[in-house]
Design brief:
alpha/beta; 11 helices; Four Helix Bundle (Hemerythrin (Met), subunit A); globular; Rossmann fold
Amino acid sequence: MTVETIRWRNNRVELIDQRLLPSKMRYIPCGTAADIWKAIKELKVRGAPAIGIAGAYGVYLGVRKTRAKDFKTFNNKIRETVKYLAGSRPTARNLFWGMERVSGVVEKNKDRSVAELKDIILKEAHAILKEDDNICRLIGKNGRKIIPKTARVLTHCNAGGLATAGHGTALGVIFASRKNIKKVYVDETRPVLQGARLTAWELVKRGIKATLICDNMAATLMANKEIDAVIVGADRIASNGDTANKIGTYGLAVLASFHKIPFYVAAPASTFDLSLRTGKGIPIEERDPSEVRRIGGKLITVKDIRVRNPAFDVTPAKLITAIITERGIITAPNRQKIAKVIEIKSIVDRP
């Protein structure tokens, strides 16, 4: 069973509104680039791979009604749309990768008519959506090789079908390894509870034994030898292996290192940003303070208390046991190993 997070229906994008889960399962229509921008910004769609797919479709939606007649004018409209969508969420590398990929096929076909280029963009967005399922299943297959039998696994945030086209990265490894996994511990993941709302929902629907914990319980479980491995997703990975993921991931990596527990990151090649030497160059999104002040819309603290709300933190590569990708497993990641496995490819090459 997979979750159809993103789909193309009736000449528009339809997305699961993840803000409503697990109480309601509802698709929302997106017929313009502005709809996609809002869906990404407001976390209606989230997770790096899913955002990348949405971004690719967003480029098409942004240019499909343009009356441009020549390539230069049309390409300028593409660039304008890409710049606009890029402002929705700056950290997730896949958002930029998806838009770069559809922009790249336009550059390769600049001799075509504008009408043909619009069709090419849409076909490329469809291809990205379709490929994601296979990529995630390969990540799961590779990850299965290193998950020990009867493992008790801890995961953070949501890196399942809801964060991708429908299968998942970190949860994709768990799904592929379910025969070896005894239990999955799910961090609730403050401030907007992606673990409690989304990961728990996915695991229960799959019939996988799951236990929800508060974010501050992980250390005690590790000390009590109740966790055998930690596996998380990623939003951007620098060329040296430093990895940005949902806030709280870095703390888990430190705890896992102290307790000598393997710490795994599962992500597609499209999440790697080989232009960055280290994680210091990864932009970290600061989100609305109300996400911290409120839960489910209800104020839980002093109304005007100052808030810090970075959406992500960066885990140094030295704390990562391995990065699991569709192209292979990168153990003790560093720049040389990553370059060998990921390879530097044209943005329009298939992963």
